[in-house]
Amino acid sequence: MKKLTIKAFVGIGMLSSISYILMLLNFPIPPFPGFLMIDFSDIPALIAVLIFGPVAGILVELFKNILDYFMTGSATGVPVGHIANFVAGILYILPTYYVYNKLKTKKGMTFGLVVGTLIMAIIMSVLNYFVIYPAYTFFLNMPAMSAPEIRTVVVTAILPFNIVKGLLITIVFMLLFARMSPWINKQNSYRNAV
């Protein structure tokens, strides 16, 4: 693994701030519960991962969530939602990066984004069932939901929400990628030459 350069650190810092701002501009989608919010804060992480590599994308996801936790706090007092957002972001950007790296085409990017969406949606459903919902219940001091109740929420809300969120990010990112791909490829070739 190559070391991150000063240019990479500056890029990661800028993309993290943009990602944090985009995280604040979240909004609900009517058929889903109000606590499930869409935002486009994974787009700067996707740009970071494509230009600077996987570590950069992970750092953007991390810094965005740290900033949001310290600026807005958490209903539970602990960053359960922020940890979930961090994990979801990584599960989305890393498969996208690895698929795109193999194919290096616009169709490859679209395929990578769809694969990232599916991986993120499936794994986050499992994590919500076994880890995230129980953690919220514990930290909010609420009565525990039964296994069938959690399964219903995961199947009817969490899984479809993550698929919709991933597809919306895919559409917006592909519109940007169509314009930015020459610049991203130029930055990539510069990074590989150094």
Automatic annotation (TrEMBL):
Function field: Probably a riboflavin-binding protein that interacts with the energy-coupling factor (ECF) ABC-transporter complex.
How is this protein situated with respect to the membrane? Answer: Multi-pass membrane protein
Transmembrane regions listed in the UniProt entry: 6-25, 45-63, 83-100, 112-133, 153-178
Q: InterPro entries, per this entry?
A: ECF_trnsprt_substrate-spec (IPR024529), RibU (IPR025720)
- Is Transmembrane helix one of the keywords? yes
Q: Which PANTHER family match?
A: RIBOFLAVIN TRANSPORTER RIBU
What does the UniProt keyword field contain?
Answer: Cell membrane, Membrane, Transmembrane, Transmembrane helix, Transport
One Pfam family, please name it: ECF_trnsprt
Q: Which residues form a coiled coil?
A: none
Q: Which organism is it from?
A: Cytobacillus mangrovibacter
Tell me the protein family, please.
Answer: Belongs to the prokaryotic riboflavin transporter (P-RFT) (TC 2.A.87) family.
Q: Where in the cell is it found?
A: Cell membrane
Name of this protein: Riboflavin transporter
* Top-rank lineage group of the source organism: Bacteria
The record's listing under Gene3D superfamilies reads: 1.10.1760.20
